[in-house]
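quick one, 151 residues, struct below
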Amino acid sequence: MIKKTILLLSCIFAVAFVNAQADSLDAAADSIVEDVIVPPGFDGGLDKFYDYIYTNFHYPEEAGRRNVSGTVEVEFTVERSGDITHANLLKGLDYSIDDVVLELLKAMPRWIPATKNGIPVRYKVSMPLTIRPSRNKGLRSGESLFDYRVE
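---
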């Protein structure tokens, strides 16, 4: 009889212990807070970024004569201050276009930095820029034969 009582008490204790463990795991799961990361942004949004590139990009004449078009894949780091560093090309298109794109990236105005839980952090940005030349009708004196579109 004593053995049955000890066995019964052991089972009750084991069930109570397992339930206590499950309750503590549920409480721990409720208290987990995930990191909230907000990516960096160009002041005014992505449309303003493309406006900046389009306005400041000067299509090289040599590339225009060869009708060069395609996609340049760029990468740069937005620092905690919003400054742009480590600008480089992951995939170039043409040496003359590549040089112009790199200069534009290095000269970009500050971005709004990324944040992690509300604190500014460094963030690496990668993106494609598509460049397409097109014939420009009705040229005036001094205008280039080629126009371009950057997407």
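The chain is about 40% helix and 30% strand.
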